[in-house]
Amino acid sequence: MHGRGRGVAGQMGRGRLMPNKQNLRVVECKPQPCIVSVEGLSSSTTDVQLKNLLMSVGPIQSLQMLPQQRKAIAKFKEPAHALAFQQKFHRHMIDLSHINVALIVE
C-alpha cells in the first residue's frame, strides 16, 4: 500500500506540470480571423438580409455573395465581431435554411 501512495504522488507531480505547458500554448500569438464564411444560404436570402444580420454583431468591411454556391464571404473590421457572429449564428435558420458559419484565417 505504501508503494501505491508514492505512485499516485508521482502522477500528481507530473499532473502539476501540465497546466504550465498548456498555459504556454495559450500565450502563443496567432492571427485572429476577421473573415467569416456563411454556407447553406437559401436561394431567397438577399444580400440586404445578410448584411443586416452581420451588422447586428459589428461593422463589416466587405460582403461577397456567391449565389451559385449558396454562400457568402464577409469581412469584419474586428476579429471579436467575426467570432461573435460565428458563435451566435452558426446553425441559425434563415429563410428555412440552416446556415453554417466558419471563421477563415487569412
TrEMBL record:
InterPro entries: Nucleotide-bd_a/b_plait_sf, RBD_domain_sf, RBM33, RRM_dom
Molecular functions (GO terms): RNA binding
Subcellular location: Cytoplasm; Nucleus
One Gene Ontology cellular component: cytoplasm
Top-level taxon of origin: Eukaryota
Keywords, in A-Z order: Acetylation, Coiled coil, Cytoplasm, Isopeptide bond, Methylation, mRNA transport, Nucleus, Phosphoprotein, RNA-binding, Transport, Ubl conjugation
A Gene Ontology BP annotation from the UniProt entry: mRNA transport
Domain RRM: 35-102
Physiological role: RNA reader protein, which recognizes and binds specific RNAs, thereby regulating RNA metabolic processes, such as mRNA export, mRNA stability and/or translation. Binds a subset of intronless RNAs containing GC-rich elements, such as NORAD, and promotes their nuclear export by recruiting target RNAs to components of the NXF1-NXT1 RNA export machinery. Specifically recognizes and binds N6-methyladenosine (m6A)-containing mRNAs, promoting their demethylation by ALKBH5.
Quaternary context: Associates with the NXF1-NXT1 RNA export complex. Interacts with ALKBH5; facilitating ALKBH5 recruitment to m6A-containing transcripts. Interacts with SENP1; promoting ALKBH5 deSUMOylation and subsequent activation.
Protein name: RNA-binding protein 33
